[in-house]
Amino acid sequence: MPAEKAIPVAKPASKPGDVKIEQKLEGVIQEEKPVANKITVGHVHMSGCTGCLVSLADNYEGLFKILDDYADLVYALTLVDVRHVPEMDVALVEGSVCIQDEMAVEEIKETRRKAKVVVALGACASYGNITRFCRGGQWNQPQHESYLPIGDIIDVDVTLPGCPPGPQSIRNVCVMAYLLLQGTDEQKALAAAYLTPLMNLAKRGTEACGCDLMYDVINQGLCMGCGTCAATCPVRAITMVYGKPQVDRDLCIKCGACYAQCPRSFFNFDVINEFESITELIGAAMGQGGE
Amino acid sequence: MVLGNYKSAVAARSTDKGILSASQDGGIVTQLFAFALDEGIIDGAIVAGPGAEPWMPEPVVATTKAELLAARGTRYTISPNMALIKEATRSYGLDKVGIVGTPCQMQGLRKAQLYPIGMRDVPDKIALAIGIFCMENFPYQGLETMVEDHCTVKMESAVKMDIGKGKFSVYTERGGLSQIPLKLTHKYEQPGCHVCLDYVSNLADVSTGSVGTPDGWSTVFVRTKVGDGVWARAVDAGCFETKPIEEVKPGLELVTKLATDKITKNQKTVEARASFGVKADGSGKALRNPYL
Questions:
Q1: What is chain B's alpha carbon radius of gyration, rounded to the nearest angstrom?
Q2: Contact status, residue B46 vs residue B99, Cβ threshold 8 Å
Q3: Given A1, B156, B204, B251, which residue has the most CB atoms within 10 angstroms?
Q4: Residue contacts between A and B (CB atoms, under 8 Å)
Q5: Hey, are the CB atoms on A255 and B290 less than 8 Å from each other?
Q6: Which of helix, strand or coil describes residue A35?
Q7: How far is B65 from chain A (nearest CA, A)?
Q8: Distance (Å) from the alpha carbon of B5 to chain A's nearest alpha carbon
Q9: Mean pLDDT estimate for chain B
């Protein structure tokens, strides 16, 4: 005779007595005093490393201030249980797009359709960065070989390079995006002026490299040897030799920080001359008060 | 606006004879950083220290008065001080960074504070930025040619170099003085200086330079709240001898004239770049303009 099949024991009708339910959460908890006119922000994760999101989080209490007063985080798979790309005022997109990954391509297109402002957050979204070096051939998707910065698939409004972009730069972009969408006319004008160079970077293209310092600064007769590029390079690929940048191109990961940070790439006097008042304004917005 | 925003302008010099013994002018940068170090306003400063070759500066993070003293004197060649701005907040572990630099380096600094693209933690850790006046700079090989060929002085023998009153002057350790008209130095200027629209470090907290005041003194602009606070404390502490700028010759009039000359000339260069080449339709083809 065949062995008798084990019959599953029926689940107890009621929970065992040693499990205590202290509190039951019901529905969505509303903020006690919702702040009016918050903008909606989403974090869209393409082929990135989450380092850009960590960089946003590294604003510490500054991030809480932003979420308390200026922005609702409506989408971020790492932090929020919202499964599909919703409507957003600002989409912070990190990572590049693998064009052999159908879902990734669909998600970036969906992001453009759903977002008023698309920010390429970090070097991968902006310029491809380390994913420029991808060429497939690894298990278990050896055909996943082509990665493009998001600007090659969708129109990007604001490019914020850096690997990772500095926390303070993401904070500044968030605060300025809020002022642009919800501020007074004066604040809107300031925010537009602040964001203009980052919008121009988006228009400039999706390629970046230490070579940019040659093509667009030294070759153009604009380098004055300040050394900023060497400081900003995350992999120390730039040394200053007789006062000019020397790029070790086999070290360079193509993040675009050196060119973007160079004071001879963009230098908008209208904004930077006001560094003292703008720093104070951002400080005040972040609740840091006066001096 | 050729002199930028400022709260006050004075003629000043350090009261420390030790500092003045080898300072370029009034010892303002060395004295102000030394005071700021003592008072804990900064815990280090990026300055142009001695480099690998004679008269070649090397950016260093100075955390002692001795290191500040070693950086005294103008080196008329490029010292990429901004190259250390992030490292000062990393392995050096500084929380309150001082930096001295030319106008363009002050521009790089303020851009890094407002648009800190690869400059994590830098914006909030800048405690005191001192800018120096700068008409133009020279590549090292250009300076070498000016000193060794035109002035016939060995680089190692020079103890001071100075640009003023239309001349480039080299003083030697044995008391010699060799001068050439500034005109002869023009071709050795760093090309990137020709699009610079700032003479007196408009974006510094405090800026200082030689022009406007007698030898041994400096012209000082106090520009920001930070600069105002530090300067007032240093003056109260007796660090500086000061005179109202109106009472010294040639005063702000000459500073304004030179600043206007520099900006007018370089603005023309910037504009000429807009039609540097030729397009197919015969109109001008532009070189890049960083200010647009």
A1: 19
A2: yes
A3: B204
A4: 169
A5: no
A6: coil
A7: 24
A8: 9
A9: 98
